[in-house]
Amino acid sequence: MKHLLIILILAITVSACQKKDTTTPDAGKVTINITSPVPAQVFRSGDTMHMVATVSYPSELHGYELKISDSATGNILYDEDEHVHNDHFEINSTWVDTATTAATLKLELTVEVDHTGTEAEKTIYFNYVP
């Protein structure tokens, strides 16, 4: 019983002393590297587009949204979001476009730095030809 009490007190002490993250959010310190698709890349109907990116930051990030839209109309063609608690992560997603008209598409990767709305963003444009 005495050993159980000592273990319990030790566990409470350790958990009460956890270091809090006091880093001031700075979207300028987020590193976003989109390796696929590349800017101005051309895709055709039925092609599988691989979206590959890495994100890093000196402190814990809180998630991301990956979106593809038609740059002329603003219509959203693909939208993925993930709640991630890490200082770095990789994105590996795929999408098959079946549109029937040529378009310049916009890929936006928005990273949520904290839960108060601080965000970092990277955008690239690529082309779709039916």
UniProtKB/TrEMBL annotation:
Q: What is this protein called?
A: DUF4625 domain-containing protein
Species this chain originates from: Flavipsychrobacter stenotrophus
